[in-house]
Amino acid sequence: MLWRARQFEFTFPRPAVVMGIVNVTPDSFSDGGRFIDADTAVEHALRLLAEGAEILDIGGESTRPGAAHVPEEEELRRVLPVIKRLVSQSKIPLSIDTQKPAVARAALDAGASIVNDIAANRTDDLMWRVLAQTGAGYVAMHMQGGPQTMQTAPSYADVTAEVEAFFVERLERLRSAGVAPEQVAFDVGIGFGKTPEHNLQLLASLRRFTKLQCPLVLGVSRKSFIGKLLGVETAQRMPAGLACACWAVEEGVNIIRTHDVAETVQALRMTEAILKQHDQ
User: Which of 177, 255, 185, 175 has the alpha carbon at shortest distance from 213?
Assistant: First the structure.
């Protein structure tokens, strides 16, 4: 299975890819404000790279539940200096975490290679035409509603079946817009329009999504459902996030998006060593 992001290619099966999170925001739920300055954000990103990140995911707009909308100009002001500097200082794919086609295009023009789109449930194809024109990799995430409304009252008859149907339908729409299947990866969207029970159902059913033959991305790092299930604050959620990441890799997930790169790399490499021995 191939995932192509402009000049970069990932061929699976291979060791799970760790995507490091770089939030250039004042209000992200976990580290909002810590890296809002470009110098600090670049320093943080290079540290994640040294810890083993193979992709850096740079975002200028918080997508936590209830997050305020960020104007396009402000989002660009936050992310473009970081992307431009990282392009000159690193040789790995850079991902732009955005819902806005204009921000995606500007980030790609600045040297990014991937668009991580929480709003893959969009009705227009403007974002997808940007992907078709640039050959960028695309992470299409499932979300019910939007950040302002998604956690009001999430409801599904069968969350796993509905997410799977969404992915199948999106893949066809992406093809129609000129996006090649090898550009596409899917993210079930843990915490995006889901209750803790929905999140657990999706985690338990990850293997089901592998039949789509597109890479799977999972982001559970420090998310609120962990706190709701286990009664722990944001800073204490790493062990549970690592447990989810290791389970996900065993179930066929290819890319883990995380704040805690060094710990995640170590946990995944050990999980993969055990699985390799088990399969011999």
Answer: 185
The CA distance from 82 to 92, in Å, is 14
Query: 12 with 215: CB under 8 angstroms?
Result: yes
pTM of the model: 0.92
Catalytic residue chosen out of the listed positions 6, 223, 237, 276: 223
194 is catalytic: no
Query: What does the alpha-carbon distance between residue 246 and residue 255 come to, in Å, rounded to a whole number?
Result: 11
Q: Check if 84 is active-site.
A: no
Answer yes or no: are the C-beta atoms of 138 and 183 closer than 8 Å. yes
Crossing angle between the packed helical segments 196-204 and 159-176, to the nearest 10 degrees: 70
Structural domain count, the chain? 1
Reported as a single tens digit per residue, the pLDDT across 160-207 is: 999 999 999 999 999 999 999 999 999 999 999 899 999 999 999 999
Average pLDDT over residues 50-63: 92
Instruction: Output the domain CATH number for residue 177.
Output: 3.20.20.20
- Parent domain of 184: 2-279
Q: Going by C-beta distance under 8 Å and a sequence separation of 6 or more, which residues neighbour residue 273?
A: none
Measuring CA to CA, how many Å separate 278 from each of 39, 58, 191, 250, 274? 45, 36, 32, 11, 6
Nearest to 100 by CA among 78, 58, 77, 71: 71
